[in-house]
C-alpha cells in the first residue's frame, strides 16, 4: 500500500492524506482542516472504493463560489496519484 499527501488549493482543508492498495482502492482518507462533519464522512463512504470511480464522482463538485471543493480537490489528488503509479 502506498501513501499520498496532497496540498489542496482554494479550500478550507490544508492537507489530504490517503493510501492506495495494489488494486487502486482508497484507504485511510483523511482531511486536515475543513468541515469537521462532512470530510470524515467522505473518508468513511469511500473506504475501499475504486479510486478512479471515486475521482469521477467527486470531480467538479463546487463549494460556494470557490470553483472547487475539498471533494473536488480529492479528485485531483487521486488523479495525480494514479498518474504517478502509471508513469
Considering DSSP H and I runs of 4 or more, what fraction of the residues is helical? 25-40%
Give, in spatial order, the strands making up the sheet with the most strands.
1-2-3
Q: Would you identify the regions where 5 or more consecutive residues have pLDDT less than 50? A: none
Helix/strand order, N-terminal first = EEEHHH
Number of helices: 3
Q: How many strands, what sense, and barrel or not for the largest sheet?
A: 3 strands, antiparallel
Overall SS class: alpha+beta
From the N-terminal CA to the C-terminal CA, the straight-line distance is 17 Å
Report Rg: 12 Å
Shape: globular
Extended strand count: 3
Give the rounded overall mean pLDDT: 96
Strand content: 15-25%
What does this structure look like?
The protein is an alpha+beta fold and 87 residues long. It contains three helices and three strands; from the N terminus they run E-E-E-H-H-H. A three-stranded antiparallel sheet has the order 1-2-3. Strand 1 and strand 2 form a beta hairpin. Helix 2 packs antiparallel against helix 3. It is globular, with a radius of gyration of 12 Å. The two termini are 17 Å apart. The relative contact order is 0.24. The mean pLDDT is 96.
Amino acid at each position: 500500500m502506498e501513501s499520498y499527501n496532497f496540498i489542496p488549493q482554494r479550500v478550507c482543508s490544508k492537507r489530504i492524506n490517503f493510501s492506495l492498495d495494489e488494486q487502486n482502492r482508497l484507504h485511510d482518507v483523511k482531511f486536515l482542516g475543513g468541515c469537521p462533519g462532512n470530510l470524515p464522512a467522505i473518508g468513511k463512504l469511500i473506504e475501499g472504493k475504486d479510486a478512479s470511480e471515486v475521482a469521477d464522482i467527486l470531480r467538479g463538485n463546487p463549494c460556494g463560489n470557490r470553483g472547487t471543493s475539498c471533494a473536488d480537490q480529492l479528485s485531483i489528488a487521486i488523479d495525480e496519484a494514479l498518474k504517478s503509479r502509471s508513469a
